[in-house]
Amino acid sequence: MKILFVCSSNVCRSPYAEFVFRRLVAQSPVLSGAGIEVSSSAVFNKSKTIFPKAVVSLEREGFPKEEILAFRPSFKWTSPEKFRDADVIIGMSKMHRLLTPRKYRKKFMTLSYAAEGKYTPIPDPFLYKTQEEYDRVMSVIKVYLEKYAAVLEQKFSAAGE
Questions:
Q1: Amino acid 159: pLDDT
Q2: Cα separation of 153 and 161, whole Å?
Q3: Which of 3, 50, 6 is nearest to 22 (CA)?
Q4: Which residue(s) pair with 42 in the sheet?
């Protein structure tokens, strides 16, 4: 199963989701055994580097700074294979569905919906001035990622029975 996380610029929310969810998959015998692949991309802006506040947030999550800084944002038109090959495209708000290439929108769902079955938009932390406000958004994303991992664990465990 290939999971693609998307946000506006692939410099804040979706790279955070990629890093954290990839770790959740690696830590879960069920999910790691299911062959889940995780990536991220932008649906609005083409960017070149991860946002500095995202670096701080990911370092606080225990990821090595070198690994974080090696991350290169991708964009829907420069990495179309990510959208084509994804089994599910997970965005942070409904707006990201509208910005996803039309032929892949049927694969789209929001992170809150994937985690809880209901929609709650995740604000763009890029707009917040302080690291504390930024990290508050990241903590919301982390909770949804943990819930989504549990949903997938249940799904793959049931499929294996």
A1: 76
A2: 12
A3: 3
A4: 7, 75
